[in-house]
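Hey,

The postdoc asked me to send both predictions to you directly instead of through the lab channel. I've kept everything plain text so nothing gets mangled by the mail client. Protein one:
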Amino acid sequence: MSAFQQQKLFGVTPPISTAEPTQKEHDATEGLVQTLKDLGLFESDEESRKRELVLGKLNSIFKEFVTRVSLRHGLPESMAEEAGGKIFTFGSYRLGVHGKGSDIDTLCVAPSYVKREDFFSDMYELLKARPETTDITAVSDAYVPVIKFEFSKIPIDLVFAGLELPAIPDDLDLADDNLLQKLDERDVRSLNGSRVTDEILRLVPNIDAFRIALRCIKLWATRRAIYSNVMGFFGGVAWAILVARVCQLYPNAAAGAIVSKFFRIMHKWSWPQPVLLKHIEEGPLAVRVWNPKIYPQDKAHRMPIITPAYPSMCATHNVTESTRIVTTQEFERAADIADRVMIGSGSWIELFTKSDFFTRYKFYLQIIASSDQAESQLRWSGMVESRLRQLVKQLELVDHLDLAHPYIKGFDKVCRCINEEERSRAAHGQFPLPREEPPADTPGTSNLYTSTFYIGLSIKAKDPTSNSPRKLDIAWPTRDFVSMVKAWDKFDCGTMGIVVQYMKRGALPAEVFEEGEQPKPLKKRPKSRNRSNPAPEENPTKKRRASVTESVSLPSGNYYAPLDAAEVLRIRDELKDPLSPFLKSDLASSGSGFMPGTPLPEDPTEGGFNLKTNDDAKENGGASTPLLQQQTAAGDVSGRTGGGPAMRYSAAAQRNGPGSPANGTTTTSGTAGAAGKVMSPGSSGLMYGGISGINASSPRTYPEIKLRLAGQQPTTTNGSNSKPVDGTPSGALP
């Protein structure tokens, strides 16, 4: 058999080229390796030995676990000691492309009578009791159940599979498909991690070139923020399969050439044409194998990359339309850079420039998961992170939104809070200024653990032929997302929290930027005076009169942050107005809560409000038109949401107290509901105490809650910092 025929066996098509590397390609490869070394991508010999020692200890612990469970099941001591148990590595460590601080993916294989429940109880406790173990958490309900922890400061991901064997020999080979018989789907998925890794190595013609190229691609994907399976991008297995496929197409190429060709091929790839390392095989099991001709779900995969081991699965089923667009854009950028490198006019270091995610978009969604215990926060934040992809899919359906781009990781913080107000603000991303930490035993102090995630929102360009206003309404996707994560069976409303709020680029916290990276806020141009009503020259400090047609504008920087029931009560007390019986009963039965988003001035006429009163109109000779629309019941205020007529802030109502009609006039633009409540048009659900637009699933802003509880209806302009009247995460678009 010729060399060409032998090389043709690698992959599902013949190679594109079998040419040997040129000197220029060798030089490019040397430059690439040196760049990777300069960036610290290779671990030291000492760390390599430490990893081997850790794996040896884990193997001993796992065998001890199998022996304990065997004895508990009534096996004789001699048989229990011979039951065995073996660990296998997979992922980047098995492929030989791990770097400093990277985790070790480890598979634990046990005999048939050791169950997954035993693993997540007994094995978990054995590991937790070891002094080398830190930050341990078990995720037994994950797609691939896993125990995550650090052992001697080495991150470990431990998965489990029980085989239909009475004992596990030390020379067990997982390549035999018959080992999969009688296993459930989760065991098959756990085993497939190791089986896929071994199959990739078997199907690559030049392992050394493959490893260098894969190190480069993994670093590039990480720096460009497109390396995260859970967020809808490609994970480690997918990147390895892609690089292996390019190696099959150029079996003799040097690593530098592989990288260059990789980006151009992937940018031009005809998705959803699948990427395969070998033909999909049938096997001995009655299990599902990836097949878009049979399964509609498989046909819906946007960028299918198929695992080579039986049963073949799609490693990229999580990809959304937004992440597909972002990944394709990054392929194109990298291809241009790599082409310049290969002709000698570029540098490899350009490839690894950090992503501009936090400066790319004008608007962002901030999702904050919080908890009061470190261990519960690991589980809670992990669950929220795993569901963010569903929020992205829902956002993609919103009008005027081009894409919803999730960032690949969250930002974890621990805040030492001295009171409940600080806790609520920290849960909304507003941490106290730096100060000396109070002692741990200080009465009333407590820790709050938060994990913050971000989604960039790309707005469609406005149609130049259309003059109609546009509104970006993301209320229902965020509401559905919050409901979904709260439906988690381990969710504890007393100790866990979730906040979704939108913000502009200039409001992003400093923690998301590296030093010198945070953009300076733009200086706002001062607003010109109303030429039709200027202040007299001789008294420039005199308050300017205003017309009744101007509306209330909320201060900038107020995010959509839910207010809890206690805070609504506090605001109401502050306004010295007794609660209506409707508000009392609704707040008492509500478990969702509302909390203030940002510190605001106590006087609503300060801090950016532009309040226009009925008295201003009378002094200007205008008609005494009632500016407050309300029901006669105390505290019951109604108003149209979204695009309804503007409501005005009434000075008379402020003087007379909440619930008092302005000029004796009573009107309502809502629909009366049960028990005196008002249903606002365009909204759903009962309103708190008849306060229109306020319900358990709709976030509110602090100043609007305050105005509504005072018996007034705020309105907003369509300025850049305006918030919609209905209080949902939506707003007017430019």
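Protein two:
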Amino acid sequence: MVKSTVTYLWLFMLGGCMLLASGLKPGDQLFASEIRNMIPQSAHAESVSAGASAPVGTSLNQPAAMGDTRSADPGTPSFFSSIAESFHSNIIEENRYLLIVNGLKTTAIIAVLSTVLGTFLGALICYMRMSRNPLLNLPAKAYIFIQRGTPLLVSLMLMYYVVFASVDINPVIVSIIAFGLNFAAYVAEIYRAGINSIDKGQMEAGIAMGFTKFRTILYVILPQTIQRILPVYKGEFISLLKMTSVVGYIAVQDLTKASDIIRSRTFDAFFPLCMVAILYIFISWVVMLALENVEKLADPKLRRKQVQGA
């Protein structure tokens, strides 16, 4: 096929030379005739050589037998075999699954402990925020404004490289403190919104019935507040869980950092990142189911339905 194409190119050049020769001067006609005599011979020789190299029983325009021209094709691997190969190279080899397991533990520790810290600290900040004393109210407002306006990654790096720069401290502890302080600002506003959603007449009714203010809050206001804030609290906790993926910036080997280490060793970015994404989705789904069960337990209507159904 290639040699036939070369022959056609020679013929194309022949036509061009003939046109060129037709425009030459009378004294140059001899040179043009020599060109016309040389090029057909070369094209004919090319055609003859192409015919000589063709297999016996085939013409120039007829391709050779498929068995002669087909190269050995090992075949492309199937989708499942490529997934199995990627799983073996990214997880099994060199016990790389231990990186994922340890990273998963670190992610869970940071998420759970920072949530506990932020939950209790947020209650304290909420109390200060709702106080009429400006010495308590103004610092709480400033704290909430700063924490909600600063990116979490910036707060984390400030905590590690500035606040604890001169202290030999585990970066996991720094991560728990940074995430807990940030989570507390959001939780404080969630608490405040939940408390404000309760009718103030219930507080007055509780005091009129002989309850103290603390007991009225504990037994009347707080159960209703928990029931109303749980959906928002659930979303904030899942957001915090996903935001722990940035702790690798301060040398914490979490789940995301583990996938980055595997990628640097295998030069395969697709499988480790997809695997980590699936793990985060699975963890978020489990947390969502757990908090939904807590939400059902906090709802008196659902509790009554369960008792009646039992």
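Summary for protein two, as requested: The chain is about 80% helix and 0% strand.

Thanks,
C.
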